[in-house]
Automatic annotation (TrEMBL):
Belongs to the phosphofructokinase type A (PFKA) family. Mixed-substrate PFK group III subfamily. Pathway: Carbohydrate degradation; glycolysis; D-glyceraldehyde 3-phosphate and glycerone phosphate from D-glucose: step 3/4. Homodimer or homotetramer. This is ATP-dependent 6-phosphofructokinase. InterPro entries: ATP_PFK, ATP_PFK_prok-type, Phosphofructokinase_CS, Phosphofructokinase_dom, Phosphofructokinase_III, PKF_sf. It comes from Leucobacter denitrificans. Substrate binds at T128, I129, D130, R165, M172, G173, R174, E224, R268, H274, V275, Q276, R277. Mg(2+) binds at N106. NCBIfam families: PRK03202.1. Catalyzes the phosphorylation of D-fructose 6-phosphate to fructose 1,6-bisphosphate by ATP, the first committing step of glycolysis. Coiled coil: none annotated. The keyword Ribonucleoprotein does not apply. GO terms for molecular function: 6-phosphofructokinase activity; AMP binding; ATP binding; diphosphate-fructose-6-phosphate 1-phosphotransferase activity; fructose-6-phosphate binding; identical protein binding; metal ion binding; monosaccharide binding. It is found in: Cytoplasm.
Amino acid sequence: MRIGVLCSGGDSPGMNAAIRGAVLRGVDVHGFEMIGFIDGWRGFHEGEFVQLDRPAVRGISPLGGVFLGTSRVPPFGTIPTDEEMREFREKMAEYGIDGFMLIGGNGTQTVSKILSDHGIQVVGLPKTIDNDLCGTDYTFGFDTAVSVASEAIDRLRTTGESHSRCMVLEVMGRDAGWIALHAGMAGGAQLTLIPEFPESIDQVCDWVMSVRDRGRSSLVVVAEGFTFSDTGETVTREGVDEMGRPRLGGIAEVIAPIIESRTGIETRATVLGHVQRGGSPTAFDRVLATRTGIAAADAALAGKWGNMAGLRGDRIELVPFAEAVGKLKTVPEERYAEVRLNFG
């Protein structure tokens, strides 16, 4: 069996470990031949790939990023035409590929379902730092992003306390606030703002004042997609992203001067940005990614295509694509409510 491996969407710590797990199990144990396409679907379209074997994946588990490269180049239009699928199958035949292992988040696994629905053999490996993919308790990359954000909170807290300042930290999270929620809890933030649950400007300032009245300095964590309930508008930067969506970022730089003007407390903003994506993955993400890769190779051997290898409890289970895509896994109300009680 010859399998094509590719990564799509944003990079995420642990992708190298996932490829290594899939290759060591697939090639060395099951006897597969595997190739990796460079820069995702771009490499598939343009015929750029590398052979994947034990030497090719030696020592890559602790490395950040992904050595194959990734991109947001699509394999076809939003709804593939019969002609596009015919050309797709011709490309597969040209490479001699029997099936795919696709590493990515919601967009990638949506493509996986489309391909599977058209009879293409696919198994999915879920990655995203946002942890917003259904069908799995955690995606690899999330734990690393939370660890980076938690360290930033620890560092901002010491300088904020030294100057009696309110510090506002912006983390990633367009539609789901998992990074902000977990990092805020881990770092002991006095206030965490996430996209799922807007809060008013007055309420935010009241919480900050409450912290000041207790003789402390506020640490506010805010996800990039957060909106004030007063306005309902997200903060965007110039231009659009690779998906054609407004480019988010800068909500911390909007909140900080509002807090300062309304409370009189000196306030500073920090936008963490792509620092959350980079660097070496945590041990948790390396293990999760490796186990996911192994499970994907085993699924291919067993002919259990049309599934994603998701984490359920402490087990890696095969989840039908229909259960994994079509909606985002957002922070439920009860998870937000349990931390909101301690704001301020």
